[in-house]
Amino acid sequence: MAASSNEPAFIEDPNNIPAEAVPDNFVSYTLKLQEALPPVTWKNWYRELHWLHVFILFVPPTLGTIGTWYTPLRLKTGIWFVVYSLLTGFGLTAGYHRLWAHRTYKATRALEYTLAILGAGVVEGSIAWWARGHRAHHRYTDTDLDPYDARKGLFYSHIGWMIFKPRRNPGPADVSDLRSNPVVKWQHRYYLLLAFIMAIVVPTTVAGYGWGDWQGGFVWSGLLRLVFVQHSTFCVNSLCHWLGDKPYDNKLTPKDCVLTAVITMGEGYHNFHHQFPMDYRNGYKRYQYDPTKWFLWSCEKLGFATHLKRFSDNEVEKAELTVQLKYLHQKQEALAWPTEKSDLPVLTWEDYQRQAESRTLICIAGYIHDVSDFIDKHPGGPYLLKKNIGKDATAAFFGGLYDHGNAAHNLLAMQRVGILLGGAPHGLEEKFVPASQHLRVSRYNEYST
């Protein structure tokens, strides 16, 4: 499809985009001009499989599951399984994710090489490939340019996007910094060799030479450890967009959940992460489970990491308050509120007394109230209300007989039917404004003049 004269030419190479070529409506513009592949169906699914990814995702768990029937788990191998899972997991979370995809801190060359080598042991692609996709995921979250689009379902965002060939290219992302990084370039060049050594050779030889469990090292610390860590990190794209709540922004799918934080080595506070991706923490609060945060903090103390970025507490709390106010506003709009003063009729004292002869009307703080529906429910007895019909019960309501609380003030306001001409509120503002309205969330149109 040809672009119109007032639109820039379609960008053929999404990895090399001149700034002047990017239209403001980039997502809709790209979706309009970039033709997607036909959808995967029951008739063509086998032709759309990405066979290398299918092999990586299904062969290790199959071989590992079969191997468990013939390979009992020894204690030392089990401990090594946990330790090596953490080490290679940090390669992904602290390295691929927080260092290279988001640049949340600076690492010494020694730490960079260490994380690059450990990350290769999870077999999720090179740093350059992984970080490019992840940056696109953040820039185009919940759009068709998001490579792991959570709107397409839990299976798709977990592994479906890897099993099948993508229907369209992921949105472009700037990776110029990664192209110039010598560690990233080195790892990308030798990735296949590094992946095989770190995923299979290292866990097998450590268990073999260490305590003579070659088979256990291969099955448990190699194959099954690989499956465990892979699906742990896959959950960042799937479960972290499905389980939990949205304390910092409720427009998109990322969510915060302590369960997914445990599963993903601290990546489960995903709503926070998507709002503040440059922060080295996912678990922003001190008590939140985020071992990667503690690992990086330790690296900083040991001199291996510097410039750990922390987003302003003021802005984080402001974002949290914004969502809370949105939810409060929604809850507020679902409730019934007193009639506005401007909609109430104004009565003289004589009119009030005359109507009170046939209606159960009581005057409190300048407002006329019809208490007919409540007179038999009054906790102090109906006689206390009956004795004040047609009278001013302000003093009695505000402590003369009983100093009523919030619930009574709120309920009384719902019974307003008029305003007394010349009537004045009693005492300070908190005495005549219902407690429920003291902190009422204003509508946008209430700010206009």
Number of strands: 6
* Domains, number: 3
Low-pLDDT stretches are: 1-12
User: What helical percentage do the residues reach?
Assistant: 40-55%
Mean pLDDT: 89
Determine the strand fraction and express it as a percent band: under 5%
What class, by secondary structure content?
Answer: mainly alpha
Tell me the number of helical segments per DSSP (H or I, 4 or more residues long).
18
What's the alpha carbon Rg, rounded to whole Å? Answer: 32 Å
How many angstroms does the end-to-end distance come to?
A: 48 Å
Biggest beta-sheet profile:
4 strands, mixed
Query: H/E element string?
Result: HHHEHHHHHHHHHHEHEHEEHHHE
- Order of strands, main sheet, comes to 3-6-5-4
| Overall 3D form | elongated
How would you describe what is shown here?
By secondary structure, this protein is mainly α. It folds into three domains: 35 residues, no CATH class; 275 residues, no CATH class; 106 residues, Roll (Flavocytochrome B2, Chain A, domain 1). Helix content is 48%, strand content 4%. It contains 18 helices and six strands. Strands 3-6-5-4 form a four-stranded mixed sheet. Strands 1-2 form a two-stranded antiparallel ribbon. A hairpin with a 2-residue loop joins strand 4 and strand 5. Stearoyl-CoA desaturase that utilizes O(2) and electrons from reduced cytochrome b5 to introduce the first double bond into saturated fatty acyl-CoA substrates. It is a multi-pass membrane protein. Its cofactor is Fe(2+). Belongs to the fatty acid desaturase type 1 family.
